[in-house]
Amino acid sequence: MPRMLDHGVRPALARTVRLRWDEHAGAQMLIAPERGLLLDEVATRIVRLCDGSRTVGQIVDVLCATYDADVRAVATDLESFLTELARRGLVRL
After folding, report:
1. CA separation for the pair 57, 41 (Å, rounded)
2. What distance in Å separates the CA atoms of residue 24 and residue 27, rounded to the nearest whole number?
3. Helix, strand or coil, per DSSP, at residue 32
4. How far is the C-alpha of 49 from the C-alpha of 59, rounded, in Å?
5. Is the pLDDT assigned to residue 12 strictly greater than 50?
6. Superfamily of domain 12-88, CATH level 4
7. Largest Cα–Cα distance in the chain?
8. Cα separations (Å) of 93 from 13, 33, 43, 56, 85?
9. Are 39 and 47 in contact (CB under 8 A)?
10. For the chain, what percent of residues have pLDDT higher than 70?
11. Mapping DSSP to helix (H, G, I), strand (E, B) and coil, where does residue 45 land?
12. What is the pTM for the complete model shown?
């Protein structure tokens, strides 16, 4: 069973990663050396919240309030998303 992400963790973009608008795609992208990841609206909101000042729990709260969504569903989806970004070296957890 995968380890659950500690909701007290304060995720932040990795040191070499930047959030940039891509004119061609008309969307935000996470840009890192030698790679990029196109983001949709929700992913962009999450990445912007990952500034190192908010805990995962606080990000869950913001997303639930913004999207009027179920806490468990948001927490599960956020955990999966952040874990994948961390695996790719795009965020620090």
Report:
1. 20
2. 8
3. strand
4. 7
5. yes
6. Coenzyme PQQ synthesis protein D (PqqD) (1.10.10.1150)
7. 41
8. 9, 19, 16, 9, 10
9. yes
10. 96
11. helix
12. 0.86
Domain spans of the chain, in order of start:
12-88
| Alpha carbons 13 and 51: distance in angstroms, whole number | 7
CB neighbours of 62 closer than 8 A, spacing ≥ 6?
Answer: 49, 54
Pair of tokens at residue 20: 């940039």
Residues counted in the chain: 93
As given in the structure block, the two tokens for residue 34 are 């030698």
Query: Residue 57 is which amino acid?
Result: G
Summarize pLDDT for 24-58 with one digit per residue, the tens: 999 999 999 988 999 999 999 999 999 999 999 99
Q: Reduced to 3 DSSP states, what percent helix, strand and coil does the chain have, rounded to the nearest 5?
A: 40, 20, 40
Tokens of 35: 């790679």
